[in-house]
Amino acid sequence: MSDSPSVETLKDALSTPSAYPHEPAQITFEQTHISLVALAPPWVYKIKKPVSLSFLDFSTLERRRHFCEQEVRLNQRLAPDTYEDVVPIVETDAGLRVDADPAAGEVVEVAVKMRYLNPSHFFDARLARGEASASDIDRVVRTLCAFYQSCPSRPEVAEAGRIDRLRAVTEENFAEAEEQVGTLLSQAAHDALAFYADRFYDL
């Protein structure tokens, strides 16, 4: 197989437990306009879609591999126990296999391998159950403040963080997301997100 498999082909192939080394009992999927995520406890595999947008270019396997590696490198700083590695998806005689030996066939895609996190522990779920407190939010804020203060800054970072630059990127995102209305999100959700983004920049 010389071309990378389509998102539909990947999803179909990765719906089978034998596609994974641990043969998970349950497999579900989440999608965004740039990623396909296979949740196969105790692991999660995030695959970047072969898309090229104004703010990113995942159009080749080499670029997707590069940005997967960068995602793991950057996110391990705050979540070292969650982000594991970048693993190959190999086209073998038996079909597509995740985290297989590259010698078993052709590497046609790559994925970020992460530890599965129980959704019941997510902050929104804890809020819904009345289990989250202001002290929890303060703890997150303190962690992030210390992290950002420890990160070196450069002129290009300051330039990219200008409000007008951020707003332009946000507006481009919403314009491109219009194509996904009716499939990945509703018109109401799109409009609400755009409205609150505008309010944020106008503060």
Any descriptors?
alpha+beta, 2 domains, six-stranded antiparallel β-sheet, two-stranded antiparallel sheet, 8 strands, 40% helix
Please describe what this structure looks like.
This protein is an alpha+beta fold and 203 residues long. The protein folds into 2 domains: 7-117, no CATH class; 152-202, no CATH class. The chain contains 7 helices and 8 strands. The protein has helices at 7-13, 61-75, 123-128, 134-150, 155-160, 163-177, 187-202, and strands at 28-31, 35-40, 43-48, 52-53, 56-57, 83-92, 95-98, 106-115. Helix 6 (163-177) packs antiparallel against helix 7.
Summarize the structure.
With 203 residues, the protein is α+β, with helices and mostly antiparallel strands. The chain has 7 helices and 8 strands, in the order H-E-E-E-E-E-H-E-E-E-H-H-H-H-H.
Instruction: Describe the strand arrangement of the main beta sheet, using strand numbers.
Output: 1-2-3-8-6-7
Shape: globular
N-to-C CA distance: 52 Å
Fraction of residues in helix: 40-55%
**Structural domains: how many:** 2
Q: What is the count of helical runs?
A: 7
Secondary-structure element order, as H and E?
Answer: HEEEEEHEEEHHHHH
Question: If you compute it from the alpha carbons, what radius of gyration comes out, rounded to the nearest whole angstrom?
Answer: 19 Å
- Going by helix content, strand content and strand pairing, the class is alpha+beta
Largest sheet: 6 strands, antiparallel
Overall number of strands: 8
Low-confidence runs (pLDDT<50, min 5 residues)? none
Arithmetic mean pLDDT: 93
